[in-house]
Amino acid sequence: MGEEGLVELTIGPLLGTQVDTLYWQLGTDPFLGSPSHRFSDQYSHDTKVGPIWGEDVDKFTTAGQWRVYENTRDLIERGVDPPSVLIDHGHRHGLDVFLSMRVNDVHDGNLPDGHPHLSPMKRAHPDWLLGLADNPHGSIRPGWSRFAYDFGLEEVREYRLSIAREAIQNYDLDGFDWDFCRFPRFFRPGTAKDNAPLMTDLLRAIRALLDERSKELGRPLPLSVRVPPTFELAMGSGLDVRTWIAEGIIDILVAGVVHGSMHRVPVEEYVEACSDTGVQVIAQNLGLFWWDRAYSAGVLFGEPTVFSTEMCRASAATYWRAGVDGIYLWNNQIIRFSRDINYSGQQWREIGDPATLEGSDKHYLVDKPPEWDWNAAEYGAPTVPPGPLPIDLDQPGDTASVRVDVADDVASEEAVGRLKGATLRLLLVNFTSLDDLEFRLNGERLDREAATKHILYNHYWLDFDVSRSPALRQGWNEVEIEVKSRNEHMGVAISLDSVEAIVRYSGNRSG
Q1: Residue 372 main-chain phi, psi, to 5 deg
Q2: In the chain, what are the domains?
Q3: What gap in Å lies between CA 252 and CA 255, rounded to an integer?
Q4: Per-residue model confidence as pLDDT tens digits over 318-365
Q5: What is the side-by-side strand order in the sheet with 175-179?
């Protein structure tokens, strides 16, 4: 591939966008070129501490694996180290470049014991691993974390610190990031909170390394962390984020998502806690994976298989209103290679500045928690905030109440003639014309008969015009549904599966 190819694939897509910082993750990620989609604790940079992917491999099992090894070997042998190349070219184009580490990546959890893709360090030190092969909490992926490092062991903490130390000392970086969201399994079940001080001490050590290096470089080096999106969820994994903020250990706090994406990460308590501390709060925007979108949305509305530009705008706009300091893009870079080679990344040009989001179409969603939370399944420690959807509505008197956050001032935009329309869209599964439901928005009744209907097999979408009374309002909106009577021929509950708000402008930028 060569230096030019590396720069073209990594720096090139960021030029002309609002992205100002690149987080370059240390590690090896052939994605669909390997059965685990990532080689946990194996690296593709010039390291003397961590194992380099492919060095102990006799025969590669896919072309993708060989290309990763051969390209890395060729670059390093020519004195071209990938992180150095990206930092240099990033600086040339006005980008800050942080080096990032996944603290305890467990993609290797789906490999069988003894598989050659398992990190040589893990093969040499099985006693360093959590080893949860007995699957104590009934995970859908048994023993997913059995190859995760046990941070309760001093040897493990020193090993992971040594990789960070080497990177901080060897590169002209602009900051360092520890990604705790991939994956937040660090201690044995039931010991996370008691062991939280160990992880805090580890971060203090990284902070000290950065402070020492910043003196050599003559500029501050921020410490960034990506963590589950609330204090409670983070502490459930042994991450004492309150102490990190109070002691000034961290500079950037990314409110992240562990599995897939959330449309609206609950950032408010982090924003409040970091106020006047100098710690920046960054919200994770929508990324690659979206497993539970209704198939009918693609058939009826032509939605892509990834989050649309309008959805990304809506998500970012709510975060800016909530007081965040920036937006974090996660796994957007592989959409081109796993979903659509012509993916434009238009949202990269818009969502980094709230001013560019004004007057642009947006599509707001209410989050559904994933079908499973692997952390909760194995540890009994959830990492995903609870969500209201789906909600079953079966008997007369059953009710549902769901809130949706909207950043647009629909009433003001309507008054000045900029608004093309505002829609409240609901998906009801197993709903029929003989079912009688009452719908309300912020306490005002919605006319079901006036709604536009889209029906496909069991899916029944209702689009209510909410550009005028009853109208969407800026901020949180409450959608209420009550069952008045049911179709007597139906023996299954109605499921409220999606609550969405769509705002369109005249002369706007569409996706």
Answers
A1: -145, 155
A2: 97-363 (3.20.20), 391-505 (2.60.120.1200)
A3: 10
A4: 999 999 999 999 888 888 888 888 888 999 999 999 999 999 999 999
A5: 21-25, 96-102, 175-179, 223-227, 252-255, 280-284, 326-328
